[in-house]
């Protein structure tokens, strides 16, 4: 066994241990947990939509304990101000000096609970820290710890007293994941686990090891044909007529930005790595397309009046634009 193979095996074992520890506490929600891991490996942020009580907070908190990282939760409310997030300058009357009090964004895993409950100026306070991994307070720049992941939640059933997220804010989220109710069997296990003895989560990794996994993820090979596929998908959301989807033009006011193409590529890398490969396959990307695109499409009034969702439009685009064949697939067909 050469050094590269040994390193790949160690990486796979470490990721398996992290997932195992989280699954000891969180029942079901495999797809959601997979997306959280993808965002973490690809150094992206996650927007999660689901009704209360579906283990969104529990998942991210358990993951923080597993990697010995800092976890902080901010409950977004209408009376929140930007300094409650990023921090502020405090005047000391005794010394006559100002000191900087850093806010809760200075952590490894940040949960922004019900982000749409706060006005746009508070939501926008996260813009710099999500993109630049830093905060500017009174002209001074402060770096946040690494790794850094923001997971924001939205409640879809209560719309009174909520504020829509600015487009610039939404675009900084790598994926928007929809979390659904558990199955009957999963719910039975949830009740047993919650009402039984408490499960102690073991720390199986460090933030340094997670940073190493992120570097490993960047080395996963993505074929140029797969990148070209991502480019075509995103381009079809902007100019559908160029891709034989003229009928979709009236439903889309604005398409996805180049961040979507980058996130598709990085996400495919992370998912391939989680599946134990050092190269990405077309299915790694196609699995993530709805999550990466659904929050970036601005639908027209015509689409809303006809009851069309972003997922439905993404499905039509994917049905028209074919994914590239798997490596050596053409040779198998020829044989």
UniProtKB/TrEMBL annotation:
- InterPro entries assigned: ATPase_AAA-3, CbbQ/NirQ/NorQ/GpvN, ChlI/MoxR_AAA_lid, P-loop_NTPase, Sigma_54_int
Checking Pfam families in the record gives: AAA_3, AAA_lid_2
Q: Which residues form the Sigma-54 factor interaction domain?
A: 8-155
**What is the official name of this protein in its record?**
AAA family ATPase
At the highest ranks, the source species' classification is: Bacteria, Pseudomonadati, Pseudomonadota, Betaproteobacteria, Burkholderiales
């Amino acid at each position: 066994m050469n050094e590269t193979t040994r390193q790949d095996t160690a990486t796979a074992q470490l990721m398996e241990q992290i997932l195992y520890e989280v699954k000891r506490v969180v029942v079901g929600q495999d797809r959601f947990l997979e997306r959280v891991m993808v965002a973490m490996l690809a150094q992206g942020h996650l927007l999660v939509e689901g009704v209360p009580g579906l283990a969104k907070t529990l998942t991210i908190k358990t993951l923080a304990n597993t990697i010995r990282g800092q976890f902080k939760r901010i409950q977004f409310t209408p009376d929140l101000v930007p300094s409650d997030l990023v921090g502020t300058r405090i005047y000391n009357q005794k010394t006559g000096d100002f000191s900087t009090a850093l806010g809760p964004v200075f952590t490894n895993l940040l949960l922004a609970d019900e982000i749409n409950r706060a006005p746009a100026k508070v939501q926008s306070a996260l813009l710099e820290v999500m993109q630049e991994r830093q905060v500017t307070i009174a002209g001074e720049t402060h770096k946040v710890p690494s790794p850094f992941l923001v997971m924001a939640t939205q409640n879809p059933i209560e719309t009174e007293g909520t504020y829509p997220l600015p487009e610039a804010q939404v675009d900084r989220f790598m994926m928007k994941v929809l979390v659904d109710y558990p199955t009957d069997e999963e719910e039975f296990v949830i009740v047993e686990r919650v009402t039984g003895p408490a499960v102690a989560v073991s720390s199986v990794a460090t933030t340094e090891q997670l940073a190493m996994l992120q570097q490993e993820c960047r080395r996963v090979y993505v074929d140029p044909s797969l990148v070209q596929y991502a480019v075509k998908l995103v381009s079809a959301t902007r100019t559908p007529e160029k891709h034989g989807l003229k009928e979709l033009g009236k439903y889309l006011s604005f398409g996805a930005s180049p961040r979507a193409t980058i996130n598709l590529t990085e996400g495919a890398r992370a998912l391939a790595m989680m599946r134990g490969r050092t190269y990405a396959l077309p299915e790694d990307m196609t699995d993530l397309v709805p999550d990466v695109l659904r929050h970036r499409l601005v639908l027209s009034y015509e689409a809303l009046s006809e009851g069309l969702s972003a997922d439905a439009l993404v499905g039509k685009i994917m049905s028209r634009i074919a994914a590239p064949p798997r490596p050596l697939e053409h040779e198998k067909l020829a044989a």
